[in-house]
TrEMBL record:
<dbReference type="Pfam" id="PF00550">
    <property type="entry name" value="PP-binding"/>
</dbReference>
<protein>
    <recommendedName>
        <fullName>Carrier domain-containing protein</fullName>
    </recommendedName>
</protein>
<dbReference type="InterPro" id="IPR036736">
    <property type="entry name" value="ACP-like_sf"/>
</dbReference>
<feature type="domain" description="Carrier">
    <location>
        <begin position="13"/>
        <end position="59"/>
    </location>
</feature>
<dbReference type="InterPro" id="IPR009081">
    <property type="entry name" value="PP-bd_ACP"/>
</dbReference>
Length: 79
């Protein structure tokens, strides 16, 4: 899966129009994703990509950025 494909899915799950993003883009500060939205987003990503939600818990330090979420998904896809 390519980063751009992941970003398209991310914006679909957020129900927002896509904007240009980078790996280091902060979800809270730059995309205005609040805490509740983040939990819902992580759950939706886990369901969409059929990866265990526990990966998001185990990698909580990565959840703050678009690239961090992408890394979690890649890790889950390789399991």
């Amino acid at each position: 899966m390519k980063f751009n494909d992941f970003c398209e899915t991310l914006f679909n799950l957020l129900e927002r129009e896509p904007v240009p993003v980078s790996n280091s883009m902060n979800l809270r500060d730059e995309l205005d994703v609040d805490s509740l939205q983040m939990v819902n987003l992580a759950t939706s990503i886990a369901d969409h990509y059929e990866i265990p939600f526990r990966l998001f818990i185990e990698n909580a330090d990565k959840i703050g950025t678009v690239g961090g979420l992408y890394e979690i998904v890649l890790e889950g896809a390789s399991m």
